[in-house]
Amino acid sequence: MEVDEYRRHDGLGLAALIRSGEVSQGEVFEAACAGIEADNPSLAAVVRTRFERARAEGQQVDPAAPFAGVPTLAKDLLMALEGEPLAFGSASLADWKAPVDSTLVTRLREAGLSILGQTATPELGLMGITEPRAFPHPRNPWNAAHSPGGSSGGAAASVAAGLVPLAMAGDGGGSIRIPASYCGLFGLKPSRGRVPLGPMHAEVWQGAVVEHAVTCSVRDSAALLDATNGMDEGAPYPVRREQGFLAALARPPGPLRVAVSLGEPLGKPMGTVLDPQVRLAVEEAARTLEGLGHHVEWVEPPVDGERLADSYLTLYLGHLTADLAWISQQTDVAVSRLDIEPSTRAIARLGSCLPVRDYELAKRYWNEAARAMGDFHRRYDMLLMPVAAAPAPRLGELYPPPARERLMSLLAIPGIARLALKAGMLKRLARDALARTPFTQLANLTGQPAMSLPLHVTPAGLPVGVQVIGAMGDERRLLALAAQVEAEVQWQRHLPRPLEGR
Questions:
Q1: Among 135, 167, 156, which residue's Cα sits nearest to residue 339?
Q2: Residue 427 pLDDT > 80, yes or no?
Q3: Which of 90, 147, 152, 175 is catalytic?
Q4: What are 386's strand-pairing partners?
Q5: Does the active-site annotation cover 181?
Q6: Of the residues 90, 114, 151, 181, which is catalytic?
Q7: Is 175 assigned a catalytic role?
Q8: How far, in Å, CA of 149 to CA of 217, rounded?
Q9: Beta bridge mates, 453
């Protein structure tokens, strides 16, 4: 199998070819490795490969597994491979090795997937771009001068460039949906607790983080969720293993009540300015859904965008402080001496000054928002909104400039971080961090499933995704709607490479 032929198929398409005997598992494997070796030096999406280990693991694959012999990539964050590096995008963990396989990795192997390597992520997954100082910065296959987003930027770049048909990703504030939008891919964030994080973690960012994948087809995402969902031993949420996500694609979802919003309650407090192409993408998506027989109504989500952003950043700061303490324990290096980026250290100093009261009050607003959205979904099945305020930024455009980093370094002076919090530093940080992407955190705080649909390409040739949020636990209808839209608009024709084998 030549690399070009390999890139014409999604994951299930490759698995079908292997099962039919048209190609061998080894041929698919070698084509994937050849593509990574040829293209990754310029793409910079894969931070490390494990071809020989993956080749040996492939010999143990059950030929009846849904993705038997299909290559994929793990993210260099949370997805642990026993005895192998897991750097979390940080120089501070460059030499650290995971003690066990994560439950998700075990389920990927049971599904027949071959993990060829690990993809780039920003340091500790903190940013909506992927520009860590410790690793090369992945480029967007649509335009190499632009970012693929973050924190699953390496994963999205890998799939958009055809290195693998699907790549594993994680989403704590939009980190699946944002890079999916920037790279013209399908990205589903499942409901809270749907995909296990064990055994090294119970919940991450108070349950805001969920892991899944970026894919070029809806069916790959659905089949993967069939294979990986359900709690593992000791998980904090009683989410039982379910089936039927792929089967749900065979049936149209029926007429849905769809609320459509440009996200003003979320974006306005952040000073967000919506790019006209994003507005056009949402309006076109609304017309597409209406044409498919769904009832579309322009309605704003019932949330306070400023409180939502503040509560999100409060938990974010608190968890970063704890993360650095964990890294210190793992590496036996004092927090003050960890090799981390200046912005990471500055944010952690703010987090170390947060009162426990403020942390708890922030989490309580998550519950308020979830209850409000639960009531909202009694009237509307889905909420259609932007993913990001603009198409993919240029590389380096959103990384803190040296002057900002020097200013943030002043937080090291005793007492300054506490004064900065009192002076409203948290609100300024929220505006700086979320102004371009204020629309995705809602689903993380409430626990709802959400997806990015690749429905628009700008005249400049950059993709724009549109977000759809469903009620808690309603992935089947989300996926059924995605499949219906995918069949209608045939978004694969937009990809930088052809996709066949459907």
A1: 135
A2: no
A3: 175
A4: 466
A5: no
A6: 151
A7: yes
A8: 19
A9: 466
